[in-house]
Design a protein that fits this description.
- It contains nine helices and no strands.
- By secondary structure, it is mainly α.
- About 6% of the residues have low confidence.
Amino acid sequence: MVDEPDDLEHALRRAMGGDPAGFATLYRELQPRLFRYARALVGQDADDVTGEAWLQIARDLPSFFGDLEGFRGWAASITRHRALDLIKLRNRRPAEPQGLQVVPDLADLTARGDTAEAAIAALSTAQAIEIIASLPRDQAEAVLLRAVVGLSAEAAGNVLGKRAGAVRVAAHRGLKTLARQVDRTPAPEDPT
């Protein structure tokens, strides 16, 4: 069950004051979203990336200043930086294919009530992987941050180091590509 925003805001305040239960509530709510985002960026190493991110979040939380939306953006930014650090390390010693790797079960990972969810839900998992992986990286990250992590355009822009308008445009273009693909996708045959 997803906690209400007021409950999460209260949990954030408690966690900032050192309350382990408040931190656990935030972790339960945000970890799956951060993991999906990291998985799309670094594949199988998402556990390591999010683990390192949560260590930094726990260490720096007492000095965090902001609301729940700001916290989500801050946590996503930390996760992104840990992922980029890993990608740089891989580039020095390549061991895996390069580029954006998308979560195999992405169709099950979208936020509720979002345009991206409707577009992705209409596609099979394999099609969603193919289409999102083919998006330019800025569009793929914008769609992931907005639809999977649930950030506002402003918070996603802070994570990506871009203006909110640029994030909206990138997400819109990515979703438009997904929508065009949905329109071209034939309906599955009824097995009965």
